[in-house]
Structure formats: structure tokens, C-alpha cells
User: What shape does this take?
Amino acid sequence: MEFAELIKTPRADNVVLHRPFYLAVEGTLCLTGHHLIFSSRRHDNAEELWLLHSNIDSIEKRFVGSLGTIVIKCKDLRIIQLDIPGMEECLNIASSIEALSTLDSVTLMYPFFYRPMFEIIEDGWSSFLPDQEFELLSSVTDEWRLSCINKDFSVCPSYPPVVIVPKSIDDEALWKVAMFRHGSRFPVLSYYHKKNGMVMMRSSQPLTGTNGRRCKEDEKLINATLRPGKRGYIIDTRSLNVAQQARAKGGGFEQEAHYPQWRRIHKCIERFNILQESLIKLVEACNDQSHNMDRWLSKLEASNWLTHIKEILTAACLAAQCIDREGASVLVHGTEGTDSTLQVTSLAQIILDPRCRTIRGFESLVVREWLQAGHPFQQRCAQSAYSNSKQKWEAPVFLLFLDCVWQILRQFPCSFEFNERFLIMLFEHAYASQFGTFLGNNENERSKLKLPQKTMSLWSWVNSSEELIKFQNPLFEANSLVIWPSVAPQSLQLWEGVFLRWNRPSKFLDEAQEEMINIIKYNKQLQAKVNALRRQIAEMGTGTWEPGVVSTQLLHLAKDFPDPQSLLHHFPRTSMICEDECIRLLRKL
Assistant: This one.
């Protein structure tokens, strides 16, 4: 199929663009196979808007006489309006946008046509491979192995070719366990806690059915993660009622009689259409500028979005607590093990593992616990909050995860190397991107599409030095401790950076952010000067210092302090001669 067949009117002049908090701009609108491009006619302040067709969630058409209006609602939640003179032109453009934004074939999407304009320093497709993760694991324990049982995706189509399993379990046993788990998603290692050797595994529900079917190989596999005399916890992300209903359909949960060393805990996390409806209600509330305080709070509560955040964080904190404080291993699963399971396992790692709070560590987490673990991004992110078509498999599962991370980041602003902008970027690219990272529903599909050969990885762009600096948190100070976020209702807030960013001017927030960065830079410069003088003063006590050099540096540094005498508090007491010399020099100021 040629894109030209879908573009009835490739260009329209005298189009007026309307956006919140911006003046209306007149210009030219062009349609290409993958972009809607608007270019203003103003010579004094030329402006361009490039919008991916894949980012368009829905469009609405209105007509007043011969003037047509198209309202475009995007998956990143922004809304723009185009006034197009001429009814026929407007209808043609609207029809073209609808066709181009709903292409059936993945291979017609922009990542297959995108050619990067930046220098590629790193191949993101090979940055976070399973064998690299296993190498890190092998440095602290020899109780696990890499299994290639799924190398051709014949055992589990939603698992990667290579998984980490207990060394004591052979591939023949894994095959039998796979037959006992929904979608063949047998238990695999998610996280190893270096502090005490406890682990977190994830899987799908067991196929126990109404007859109480059992699998001894499955029992042996998860028992292999237990220390002698220790118990483990199974965190089921469904309510007990839902889990029991699943038994009637052939699913179910681990029977206590067959898993006596494991305690099962049900932590209900909603899924699919309930989450999608919640997102729709939340965005609708955020876009409604007419209501008063009571109505706003009522609509916010009715969306249940923050309730879902609380449920997910509570389950993640429970998993982390079992591992770190109870000294117990954990198995997490729901029904398929591709949604709420991954939310819990990935958030628990952010709580427990400081590496996951760095930029590369978080990227590795997204690859390992979401992309390789088989979260169906293509299905879940097919629509956002504005689509008019009937919901199928859409659900903001990944967005909820990112929102939970933002909640923790807000509570521990110095413990994360990345900033809010980094999380927003991931949200945007999960729904519409020039990169192939989030295409497909699992590694099997990505392999068939040959994405590493035919598309560019998001990580190649993010990790380029020019872009990376934009995502760094200026407040970051490495924190090796476990961090315990509060899940109290009053501790959770609406993520304004996502849900209100198109509904309010960002000028003052941007200025405040810039000022904070400048203050931190200046503070680091002063600290560097202080450290240099500390070394010089330390040399005074050893007889190797040069008075002229120290005097000059002290005088320069003193200019940066409102009270020069306060300089003395920045230096260690080395000797009375050293301190007397400092005081004598400072008195000259």
C-alpha cells in the first residue's frame, strides 16, 4: 500500500492552529505518510509543529458555514484545534488523518522509516541482554543458571529466549512446569536481594482447576528458592473471589496442601477495562475547566486513579517487606502474569535496589521486567484516554507503573538519578514513537519483525550525551539504602506533569526548575573550591604548603561567602599554626 493513496489533500493553506496558552497561529498544513506538519507564516517568529499520526487518539469535525474545524486529541493527552477553510478540504484532511492514524500493519509505522539525525554511540538493542544481567548475578551467587529452553519461543511465546531459573531444576522439569502454568509462563527469577540472598520470582497462575490438579515439578521449582527452615510468600494480585472464580475456568492458585512452606496473600489490583475507564474519567476531570472545588474533588475521587496507585504501591511494598524485613522469598503472579505482576515486581525492585534508581538501572528494569517479560505494549497502548472505538485490550498499565515511580521520586527527591521528565518521555514513547523499542507485544513478535535490524532503539537516543543531561536529576545523591514510600492517601498526589501539563502554563515551573539547577551548579562550584582549600590547609600541618598560594585562594573563596569568618567552619582543625594563619589572612579582608 502506498501512503499517497490515503492522503486525499496533502496540503492546505490559511490554516489556523489553536493550542491552550498559545496565541492562534496561521500557517500551512501538510500531511505525510507519518506526520501532520504545521508551519507558520510568521517571518519574525517561525513556528513548526510535527505530530506523529500514531500519536493521534481521536479526531472530531465541526463546520460553521464553509469553515471546517478539526479537533485532534492525542495519546499524550494534548488537544489541538485546526481551522481549515473549505468544507471539502477539511473533510479530506480529516479522512486522511483517521486512516493514517489507524494503520493495521506494524511494518508501516514510522519506526521502520525513521533515520536518526544524531550520532549513534551505543546500540540500545544490545545494551541490556539477559546474559549481562546473569553475569552480575553470578558474581554474588552460583545457585542459578541461564536456560535456553525457550530459544525458539516454542515453550512460552511471551517469554524471552533465555530465562534465569534455579540451577537444581533441569529443562525437562521446566517443560512440565510450563504445561502447568497459564500461557506456559513458568516461575522465573525477577530479583536477587544481595543483602540476605532472598529472591523474587514471577509467573502466571497455576492451572489447578476445580479438581485441584498439582505438578510436583512446579512445587520443586519454587521450593528451590527457599532456605532451610524458611517460608516463602505467594503474592496473588487478584482478590480471593476472583482467584476462586478462575478455578472454574481451569485456572486457580497454589493449594496449601501442596505448597505447605508458602503463605498465599491476595492483594487485589484491577486490570483491563476498569483501568482504562479510570484513565478516561481522570483525563475528563482534568480537562473540565468549569467545575468548582467540590465538583473537581468529586470527579477526581470517582476516577479511582489514586486508589489504583495506592493498591499497586501497597502490593509492591509488601513484596519488598517480605524480602528485606521478613527474610523470605516471594513469588508474584496474577492471571497471565503480564500486567499487575510486572507492576509489583518492578516497583519492589525500585524500593529495594539502588541500582534501579539510576538511569541505566531503570532502563535495564524496563527492558527486563516489561519488554522481555512480555507486557503486551502493542495491545495496551493502542488507545489512550480519548479514543471513541470500543475497548479491547487497552489499559494504562505501564502509565500506572510510571505514576507509582513518580510518587516515590516525589517522596525521595534525592535518591533518583533521573528526573520527572525522564518518566514523561517513557510514557510518550510507549504510546507513539519514532523508535522500535515498544513495538510488538513480546520478544517473539519483535524477533519476527526484526526490530533490532530494521528500527532504532530508544536507548540509543536517550543515552546519547546530548539527551542524557536533560533527564538527570540535579538533586541526586546516591543512596544505598532501601527506601520505604508512604502509601497513605494524603501522601499520594495527582501527577500534574502528565495530567495537567496541557491545561496550565508551564513558564513559571520551567523558570523555577532552571533556577534550581543554577543554584545547585553554583553550590557544586563552591564545594569544589572548599575541597581544594581543605587539601591546601591539610598541607600546612605537614610543612609542604605554600603561603602565597593559600592566601590567594582564601581571598578568592572568601568573596563567595557573606561572612568570611564562616570559612573556618568548612575546614578541619589541622594545627594551631594553620588556624592562626587562616585567621590572620581573613582579617586582611
About this structure: The CA atoms of residues 209 and 247 lie 4 Å apart. The first strand starts at residue 11 and ends at 18. The chain has 21 helices and 14 strands.
